[in-house]
């Protein structure tokens, strides 16, 4: 899995600032043009959870900025939470999920490891499951998902 540094994009920076002002983090953002319209998808996150009202507030905050960025085009905006079993698309997402359950498929052992994400930086993550701690470099992570079952205390 690759860690992609944040792109230097004024639109994303302004959307991120708006979302941050609502107490949320912008996990993913994309805008695609299709025959005179723009389809915008945003994923927002907060440690305590994201509800419909949060997504609605983010949508209302983003729309005027998007209308300025894409004048004379019809804009469709979809704002969603990551959900409880999100597929992590880029290693740069891991820091958002510290304290959450995560499953990673490791190429070095050809198997899944799961636990609570304790730490994540630009090169590796650390998972804890019971008494076991895994320091996993992103280079050996083929895929990863949030895993709510790792957070439930038995």
Task: Give the arrangement of secondary structure elements.
Blueprint: H1 10-21, E1 25-34, E2 37-45, H2 52-69, E3 74-80, E4 87-88, E5 101-106, E6 111-120, E7 124-129, E8 132-137, E9 141-146
Parallel strand pairs: 2-3
Antiparallel strand pairs: 1-2, 4-9, 5-6, 5-9, 6-7, 7-8
Helix pairs in contact: 1-2
Q: Any overview of this molecule?
A:
- By secondary structure, the protein is of the alpha+beta class.
- The chain has 2 domains: 71 residues, GMP Synthetase, Chain A, domain 3; 64 residues, SH3 type barrels.
- It is 19% helix and 40% strand.
- It contains 2 helices and 9 strands; from the N terminus they run H-E-E-H-E-E-E-E-E-E-E.
- It has a 6-stranded antiparallel sheet, with no helix packed on it.
- The longest helix is centred in the middle third of the chain and has 18 residues.
- It starts with 9 loop residues before the first helix and ends in an 8-residue tail after the last strand.
- The model has no long low-confidence stretch (mean pLDDT 93).
User: What Rg is obtained from the alpha carbons, in whole angstroms?
Assistant: 17 Å
* Morphology call: elongated
Average residue pLDDT? 93
Order of helices and strands: HEEHEEEEEEE
CATH superfamily of the largest domain: RimP-like superfamily, N-terminal
* Helix amount: 10-25%
Reading off the top of the CATH hierarchy, the class of the largest domain is best stated as Alpha Beta
- Which blocks of ≥5 consecutive residues have pLDDT under 50? none
Q: Please give the alpha-carbon distance between the first and last residues.
A: 31 Å
Strand share of the residues?
Answer: 35-45%
Please give the count of helices. Answer: 2
């Amino acid at each position: 899995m690759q860690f992609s540094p944040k792109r230097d994009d004024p639109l994303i920076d302004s959307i991120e600032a708006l979302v941050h002002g609502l107490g949320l983090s912008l996990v993913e953002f994309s805008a695609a043009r299709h025959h005179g319209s723009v389809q915008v998808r945003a994923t927002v996150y907060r440690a305590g959870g994201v509800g419909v009202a949060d997504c609605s507030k983010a949508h209302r905050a983003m729309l005027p900025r998007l209308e300025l960025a894409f004048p004379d085009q019809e804009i469709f905006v979809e704002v969603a939470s990551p959900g409880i079993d999100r597929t992590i698309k880029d290693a740069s997402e891991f820091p958002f999920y510290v304290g959450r359950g995560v499953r990673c498929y490791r190429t070095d052992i050809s198997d899944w490891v799961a636990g609570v994400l304790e730490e994540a930086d630009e090169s590796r993550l650390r998972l804890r499951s019971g008494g076991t701690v895994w320091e996993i470099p992103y280079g050996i992570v083929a895929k990863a998902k949030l895993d709510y079952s790792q957070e439930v205390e038995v």
